[in-house]
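G., the chain you wanted modeled:
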Amino acid sequence: MAESNANPRYARQRRLPFWDSTAQTNLASSHALIVGVGALGCPCADLLVRAGVGKLTIVDRDLVDVTNLHRQTLYTDDDAERHRPKAIAAGERLRAVNPQVEVHPVVADFNSFDAEHLMLHERLGKPDILIDGCDNFETRYILNDLSVKHAIPYVYGGAIGTKGMATVFLPPEGACLRCLFPEPPAPGSQPTCETAGVFAPVSSIIASYQASEAIKILMGHRDRAMRSLLEFDLWEGQRRRIDLSGSRDPQCPCCGEGRFEFLDRDDEGTVSICGKNAIQVNPQARQRVDLASLQRALSMHGTFEHLGVLVKGCLRDEPYGLSVFHDGRAIIEGTDDPAIARSVYSRYIGS
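Predicted structure as tokens:
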């Protein structure tokens, strides 16, 4: 746990009139969960660790890629060259920033099958706040279900192109995500980081907003949390706030009727990876994979390394790369076709 009182590390923030010893102690006793350690999760995690949050769990399914480096501030060129798991690389960096914070990295997909277990039963236990660092709408709706079901504040954020959006949901008070956006947008109807790009200052601003709101709540100043939706276009210089005080929908399927449809639905067999020509394939049954044995088997068909939490390499006779994780999940690089990805998975890993 991060030390609180009389620690010179926190001296400058302690000079703020609202940041007394009680606030710092509350922060040091708190646990934040960030799902996704990318353009939003990296700066947000960095700010929380520097401020002295006691415990931080970070969950990410992806590997560091050179295309991440202009905006994902915890990673280095070496991380990208080695294609390290984001959660592992971020965890090492965050521990180096503040060794007094307990950081728990989890290399996993935060999906309907695993999300509740990951939130409640990982090493650091139930978090006090959920922070959105996601790159897809499905995971955001899973986070919203968890937030409402377990009455945990949820700090929502998004950044694409030159635009950003953020707010805070405080169940059981006020609206939830589904009150504002009842259903996720149709596939292909929204821009992605691959199609629209990302202006890095936008994600840094949204991440700073998320960290600020999280710190307020964890310090015990929940009453200071913004009750509005922030939207801006940094390139055009446009900004607006939408008051959410009257936005709760009594007929909302989630917070109004207590139905957690995204948490309860069957897990998708394949998921596209934002910004990459790659597909994630989820196994039909979750069981731990013997990665050492798998590496030996795959090495008959290409060049593969056992990197601790995954086996990674390229096939010799087909234009695909494979990254296989301990839970059987795999990322198939070199295709955006789910059928091809499933076929490659079946041939080389199994059904």
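The domain at 270-348 is CATH 3.30.310 (TATA-Binding Protein).

Shout if anything looks off.
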